């Protein structure tokens, strides 16, 4: 079987679910994963190695069940880092990369003390550490399953991040004061489930996604309280936020006394918020 035959087979089975362009992208990603060659070389293969055909077919079958490709392959790329992921962790999103880029654009190379709350796979903490080796990175996560994957990622990338098991909503934060705090906490309201794709709803961890409609800012208010206590004067808290609730979130965090800067992502959605502690 060559690439064109395989491509036609995938399109016939998956196009109705994913669309033609997405199926092509998924197939190329799968072939890159198993063959370890550049996409431009795929069409040059007269025949695909016979031993990889069953693996590729297994991926196709799982995609037909709407399992996320990142979980199927066990890896994803975030800020040019290859990370292990699995069903116990949230798959890092491109908009979270924009949050990382914002932090790096604003902060220099000087040694800083940084903590990432609700770290999941460790994506934010590891991306910051990779770009700023002089920074001291701590990352906090409740899920034991996620912490295993985060530590695997740190070891694989040879990056020194101190991962701590703790509940952000209940436990006190130690190790400060910090120059930077950052978090991509759960922020999707239960009522927004109908807006989400099936592969997210059925496979990604609810613990990392959802908050009750009755208290959609419980993580933000708790984290803002920790920031007010543990940030250095002039330090900054960076947050990924719910695009539908940006104005309400600004109002909810106003009592903490931060100077706040709301930013949009590349799709012009309110997605990021910086809360800066006043200098004494």
Write a short abstract of this structure:
The protein contains 10 helices and 11 strands. By secondary structure, it is of the alpha/beta class.
Describe the structure.
This protein is an alpha/beta fold and 280 residues long. The chain is built from 10 helices and 11 strands. It has helices at 3-18, 20-35, 53-64, 69-73, 94-106, 123-131, 144-157, 198-203, 218-230, 246-253; strands at 75-78, 81-84, 113-117, 136-141, 161-165, 178-183, 188-189, 210-211, 231-240, 259-264, 270-276. Strands 5-4-3-6-9-11-10 form a 7-stranded mixed β-sheet, with helices on both faces. Helix 1 (3-18) packs across helix 2 (20-35), helix 2 (20-35) runs antiparallel to helix 3 (53-64) and helix 5 runs parallel beside helix 6 (123-131). It is globular, with a radius of gyration of 21 Å.
Question: Which characteristics define this entry?
Answer:
alpha/beta; 280 residues; 10 helices; 40% helix; 11 strands; 7-stranded mixed sheet
Q: Sheet with the most strands?
A: 7 strands, mixed
Number of helical segments? 10
Mean pLDDT across the residues is 92
Number of strands: 11
The residue fraction in helices comes out at: 40-55%
- Estimate what percentage of residues fall within beta strands: 15-25%
| Topology as a string of helices (H) and strands (E) | HHHHEEHEHEHEEEHEHEHEE
What is the CA-atom radius of gyration, in angstroms? Answer: 21 Å
Structural class: alpha/beta
List low-confidence stretches: none
Distance between the termini: 68 Å
Strand order of the largest sheet: 5-4-3-6-9-11-10
- What is the 3D form? globular
């Amino acid at each position: 079987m060559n690439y064109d035959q395989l491509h036609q087979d995938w399109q016939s089975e998956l196009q109705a679910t994913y669309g033609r362009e997405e199926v092509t992208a998924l197939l190329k990603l799968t072939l890159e994963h198993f063959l370890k060659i550049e996409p431009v070389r795929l069409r040059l293969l007269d025949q695909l190695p016979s031993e990889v055909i069953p693996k590729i077919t297994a991926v196709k079958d799982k995609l037909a069940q709407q399992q996320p490709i990142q979980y199927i392959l066990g890896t994803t790329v975030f800020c040019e880092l290859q990370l292990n992921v699995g069903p116990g962790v949230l798959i890092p999103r491109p908009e979270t990369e924009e949050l990382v880029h914002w932090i790096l654009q604003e902060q220099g190379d000087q040694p800083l003390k940084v903590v990432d709350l609700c770290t999941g796979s460790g994506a934010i903490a590891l991306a910051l550490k990779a770009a700023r080796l002089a920074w001291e990175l701590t990352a906090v996560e409740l899920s034991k399953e996620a912490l295993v994957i985060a530590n695997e990622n740190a070891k694989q990338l040879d990056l020194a991040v101190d991962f701590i098991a703790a509940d952000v909503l209940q436990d006190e934060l130690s190790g400060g004061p910090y120059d930077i705090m950052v978090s991509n906490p759960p922020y999707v309201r239960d009522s927004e489930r109908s807006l989400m794709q099936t592969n997210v709803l059925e496979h990604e961890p609810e613990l990392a996604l959802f908050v009750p409609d009755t208290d959609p800012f419980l993580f933000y208010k708790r984290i803002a309280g920790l920031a007010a206590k543990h940030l250095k004067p002039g330090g900054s808290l960076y947050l990924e936020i719910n695009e539908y609730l940006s104005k309400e979130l600004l109002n909810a965090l106003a009592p903490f006394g931060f100077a706040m800067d709301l930013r949009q992502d590349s799709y012009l959605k309110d997605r990021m918020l910086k809360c800066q502690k006043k200098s004494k």
